[in-house]
Amino acid sequence: MADFYVEIGLSCLPKYTEELCGDTVRTTTDEHSVVSVVSDGLGSGVKASILSTLTTSIASRMFTAGVSLEDMMETISATLPMCRERKIAYATLTAIEIRRTGQAFLAEFDAPGALLLRDLQPVRLERTPRRVGQRPLTINEAHFWMQENDYLVCVTDGVIHAGIGAKLALGLGEAGLQEFLQARLTPNMTAQEVADRITEYVHYLYNGKPGDDATTLVLKIRKPKRLMVLVGPPKDRALDKALAHKLAYYPGTKVVCGGTTAKLVARELGRQIEIDLEQFPVEHPPTGQIEGIDLVTEGIITLCGAAQFLENKNQDHQEDSPAVLLGQMLLASDYIDFHVGGAINPAHQNPELPFDLALKQQVVNKIAAALAHRGKRVQVQLY
Question: Is the CATH number of domain 226-382 1.25.40?
């Protein structure tokens, strides 16, 4: 069964003269799926923001509590307040669930239709209307499967109406958005790049003065980018061979931290270590090269530097230093597996070394926490 990663791109543009966007997007993730809820509050500014925030908060909490997405939509649509004068809901709602298998569910209430792109071409989504609540209200639902590198584009009314009174008499419209995406998107664009490109176009159509809040949410499904980091030899030398081969056959990017660890990997895999002592300034530990390994670095000093890079505590690192290279690799990955050996390195028993230099597990845990905060899936295994 496929194991996909859902990449998320989000871009918001508030109405001209308003500092606060009246649209709200809330996304929750777990090991099985990603759920995004988009709401467009009636009007703009603070009032609209409060309405849309309440709507997405209720929806997200119901789903977290185990309520199915279908039941969640029915409950919210039945309880949404209505504007007495205009006879419309105070907030629109779009809910999307994408499972790691690619199975997806879409529910829309009074919102522009989401657009599915495959190979940069639109895919028709068969929607089923369902009447719910006492009013009653109509929810449009779609069950479908997403394939690798598909994009699901969800926008609020401010995007669809872009250009009214400015460059387009009737606004961009859903057809115009579809034409724009087909003409301007290129293969391998990230979800964020697609969202940003739509916002740039909307800003242009409004002549730099948006007449409504405009929000774009893009969900791209792709294979996850995996990274394995081997830090230190295991306590039991009998595990050396198994750990080295686990690294060699890992289906993703491979990193070795520590000179002793690098020697272990080279010995067990029958490969040579090439040390580069000239590429970096002397204040930075050098990197090495082992065939089939993407990055080979010194151990604890580089890990501490990577932790500082991730926490934005130190901006003095050279752009091509091992710590920055490791930090960039970590940020570019979705699933990160740390394998931390428990063998004691005599070099780290110097009492003059800083506390966090003496405990590599503590540093790895600090890095793992910083990555988890960014939505990465991190596992730390001790040997």
Answer: no
